[in-house]
Design a protein that fits this description.
Blueprint lengths: L23 E2 L6 H10 L4 H16 L21 E2 L13 H10 L1 H7 L3 E6 L2 E7 L1 H5 L3 E4 H7 L1 H7 L10 H9 L3 E6 L9 E6 L6 E2 L2 E6 L4 E9 L7 E3 L2 E6 L4 E10 L3 E3 L2 E6 L4 E10 L2 E4 L2 E4 L5 E10 L4 E10 L5 E10 L4 E10 L6 E11 L5 E10 L4 E11 L2 H9 L4 H17 L4 H15 L5
Helix pairs in contact: 1-2, 2-8, 6-7, 9-10, 10-11
């Protein structure tokens, strides 16, 4: 077998950058004047400005988390919270400015749309620059648009759900998000409508010393189903960038939602994202998550199993390399009877990277006859990396089935020797073991995105093997 030449992958396709050109870039910092200016430039209704200002008040009251990675290098006085690119939103791909269009062409978004997706939204810095949805979905009553347009076109629907899944005072960075949010996606799937093809939003942050604060709100009505795919990337700069987005998911009775994410932020990014779902009776939400890049990540998707017989599954992987601290995991709260959750998390660390699995399982007294299974594995590729498992399990009823299993260890020398005895080089043997370790996640993704994830793993492995 030919040797895998990982050095050929050294030109990371995500790390190209455009000149920092924009129509408008907000002054650095965070203040009432800045929040009001963002709202004014978006021509928002007063009720949205009121939410922003309330969130700003909460942000100023709340403290930084006292646990997890050190966030002391984050200085909001050095971050621009709003960057408007030199274009408005287009519905025709050919109308997008060449510089921005070429960015998404390199990332494969137009090809993915043509081959596989029912609808695509593309955000560049603080604004959505392209949005498309197939006509047959519109005829079924599906709403898929950018979040700014939803505020304008569907105000009553937005007001009914906005901040209702993730309260604006939940923690300091969600308060920051609600104060300065911009862009994102809004999806409504009507009762009984089952989408056979996924919808996708892609978020690209290009401008240095800036933040991206997109808001995604998805409502899957009774008996409906949807697969939503989210992709994120940014080029590397020498100074800190910030991502503090928010995802609110509402799955009604007997609805189904799969939310897949591949995040490949740059190694100067602080990724402080918040994602939460509420499942009604008989509903199910499945999370598939791949976390790559970013200097620091604090990301813990959460499912609230509110209704009886509701379900959730989480399948995730993170890859922490040199200088990275990826603190990720999953949270689930069982409220209804006969609810079930299945959690499978895998982490890889190399070259001194730190990978932490942090979880919460809370089963309330009302959640009788519920089931929960948690499995988390950590793989360290050397002796200087770190992997931790920090679970919190709060079981408040005896009428429950619960199991938790965790394994952390170094890459197996015996397995490497066995594969080498079958003709593989040491580098190829290590690469095969890592890809096999990640297989439970990649097999849950559509083919194009599984290939994408394996490519990211190869890029992360560069320098770790060989």
């Amino acid at each position: 077998m030919a040797k895998t030449k990982l050095e050929e992958l050294s030109t990371n396709i995500y790390n190209f950058k455009n000149p920092d050109k924009y129509e408008y870039k907000m002054a650095k910092g965070l203040s009432r004047d800045i929040v009001e200016e963002i709202s004014k430039k978006k021509n928002e209704p007063k009720w949205m400005l009121d939410i922003r200002l309330k969130a700003l008040d909460e942000y100023e009251k709340l403290s930084l988390p006292t646990w997890g990675p050190d966030l002391s290098e984050l200085n909001m006085d050095e971050i621009s919270t709003y960057v408007r690119p030199k274009t408005d939103m287009k519905e025709n791909w050919e109308d997008v400015p060449d510089e921005i269009k070429n960015t998404f062409e390199k990332l494969g978004i137009p090809q993915a749309e043509r081959k596989y997706l029912a609808g695509v939204g593309a955000q560049y810095d603080s604004e959505v620059v392209y949005h498309s949805i197939k006509g047959e979905l519109l005829k079924k009553g599906v709403i898929y648009t950018d979040f700014d347009s939803a505020v304008r076109d569907y105000p009553e629907l937005v007001k009914e759900y906005f901040t209702k899944c993730v309260p604006l005072n939940e923690h300091k960075f969600i308060a920051l998000h609600y104060a300065v949010w911009s862009g994102g996606s809004f999806v409504y799937i009507p009762k009984g409508v089952k989408l056979e093809m996924p919808l996708q939003s892609y978020f690209r942050l290009n401008s240095p010393e800036s933040g991206q604060f997109e808001h995604t709100l998805i409502i899957v009505d009774e008996g409906a189903s949807l697969h939503f795919i989210e992709g994120c990337s940014a080029p590397k700069y020498n100074k800190v960038n910030l991502h503090a987005g928010c995802v609110e998911l509402f799955v009604k009775d007997n609805g189904y939602l799969r939310y897949s994410t591949i995040e490949n932020w740059s190694k100067n990014m602080l990724n402080l994202n918040t994602k939460k779902a509420i499942c009604e009776q008989g509903a199910q939400v499945d999370w598939v998550s791949g976390s790559f890049g970013s200097k620091i990540s604090m990301l813990y998707p959460m499912s609230i199993l509110k209704g009886d017989n509701s379900k959730t599954e989480y399948t995730g992987i993170s890859f922490a390399g040199q200088g990275q601290n990826l603190d990720t995991g999953f949270k689930v709260v069982h409220v209804g009877k006969n609810t079930s959750s299945l959690v499978s998390s895998r982490s890889i660390s190399k070259n001194g990277g730190v990978a932490t699995y942090r979880s919460l399982v809370k089963i309330l007294p009302s959640a009788t006859n519920s089931k929960c299974s948690v499995n988390c594995d950590g793989l360290m590729l050397d002796s200087i990396s770190k992997s931790d498992t920090l679970p919190v399990n709060d079981i408040q009823t005896d009428d429950v089935e619960f199991s938790h299993e965790a394994k952390v260890g170094k890459i197996s020398e015996k397995a490497i020797f066995y594969l080498m005895s079958r003709g593989l080089s040491e580098d190829d043997a290590k690469a095969m073991i890592v890809r096999g370790f990640a297989n439970p996640v990649s097999k849950e993704l559509p083919l194009e995105y599984a290939v994408e994830m394996n490519r990211l793993i190869n890029l992360e492995l560069e320098g770790a093997i060989g």
